[in-house]
Amino acid sequence: MPTLVPGSTNDAVAALLVYRPGRATPCPACGERQWLVGRVVAQCACCDTALPIDLAHRGWSGSPGQRMGLERLPIA
Question: Is the pTM of this model over 0.85?
Fold first, then answer.
Protein backbone atom coordinates (compact mmCIF):
# COMPACT_ATOMS: atom_id res chain seq x y z
CA MET A 1 0.00 0.00 0.00
CA PRO A 2 1.46 3.40 -0.93
CA THR A 3 2.36 5.84 1.80
CA LEU A 4 0.47 9.14 1.73
CA VAL A 5 2.68 12.18 2.21
CA PRO A 6 0.83 15.35 3.35
CA GLY A 7 0.96 18.22 0.87
CA SER A 8 1.86 16.05 -2.09
CA THR A 9 -0.02 14.81 -5.13
CA ASN A 10 -0.96 11.76 -3.04
CA ASP A 11 -3.50 13.97 -1.21
CA ALA A 12 -5.31 14.63 -4.48
CA VAL A 13 -5.38 10.92 -5.28
CA ALA A 14 -6.63 10.03 -1.80
CA ALA A 15 -9.39 12.65 -2.07
CA LEU A 16 -10.64 10.96 -5.23
CA LEU A 17 -10.88 7.57 -3.55
CA VAL A 18 -14.15 8.26 -1.76
CA TYR A 19 -17.69 7.51 -2.83
CA ARG A 20 -19.82 10.62 -3.35
CA PRO A 21 -23.54 9.90 -3.60
CA GLY A 22 -25.21 11.52 -6.57
CA ARG A 23 -22.12 11.28 -8.77
CA ALA A 24 -21.12 8.60 -11.25
CA THR A 25 -18.15 7.23 -9.32
CA PRO A 26 -16.17 4.58 -11.21
CA CYS A 27 -14.60 1.79 -9.20
CA PRO A 28 -10.80 2.27 -8.95
CA ALA A 29 -10.25 -1.48 -9.37
CA CYS A 30 -12.58 -2.53 -12.20
CA GLY A 31 -14.10 0.69 -13.59
CA GLU A 32 -17.74 -0.31 -13.09
CA ARG A 33 -20.23 2.18 -11.65
CA GLN A 34 -22.60 -0.02 -9.66
CA TRP A 35 -22.35 0.36 -5.89
CA LEU A 36 -23.94 -1.15 -2.81
CA VAL A 37 -24.15 1.82 -0.45
CA GLY A 38 -24.13 1.39 3.31
CA ARG A 39 -23.83 3.85 6.17
CA VAL A 40 -20.06 4.24 6.16
CA VAL A 41 -18.75 2.56 3.00
CA ALA A 42 -19.90 1.87 -0.53
CA GLN A 43 -18.95 -1.49 -2.01
CA CYS A 44 -18.51 -2.17 -5.73
CA ALA A 45 -21.21 -4.60 -6.88
CA CYS A 46 -18.83 -6.26 -9.33
CA CYS A 47 -15.47 -6.69 -7.58
CA ASP A 48 -16.29 -5.97 -3.88
CA THR A 49 -13.88 -3.02 -3.61
CA ALA A 50 -14.96 -0.79 -0.71
CA LEU A 51 -14.68 3.01 -0.64
CA PRO A 52 -15.53 5.26 2.29
CA ILE A 53 -18.48 7.58 1.79
CA ASP A 54 -17.50 11.25 1.59
CA LEU A 55 -17.54 12.72 5.12
CA ALA A 56 -19.02 16.03 3.98
CA HIS A 57 -22.00 14.24 2.46
CA ARG A 58 -22.71 12.36 5.68
CA GLY A 59 -22.66 15.60 7.66
CA TRP A 60 -19.78 14.40 9.86
CA SER A 61 -17.23 16.87 8.59
CA GLY A 62 -17.19 18.69 11.91
CA SER A 63 -17.06 22.12 10.34
CA PRO A 64 -18.43 24.84 12.63
CA GLY A 65 -21.64 26.50 11.66
CA GLN A 66 -23.13 23.35 10.20
CA ARG A 67 -25.92 21.99 12.31
CA MET A 68 -28.26 19.27 11.37
CA GLY A 69 -31.74 20.62 11.68
CA LEU A 70 -34.25 18.64 13.67
CA GLU A 71 -37.83 18.63 12.53
CA ARG A 72 -40.84 17.99 14.69
CA LEU A 73 -42.87 14.97 13.79
CA PRO A 74 -46.54 15.56 13.06
CA ILE A 75 -48.88 14.59 15.87
CA ALA A 76 -51.68 12.38 14.64
Answer: no
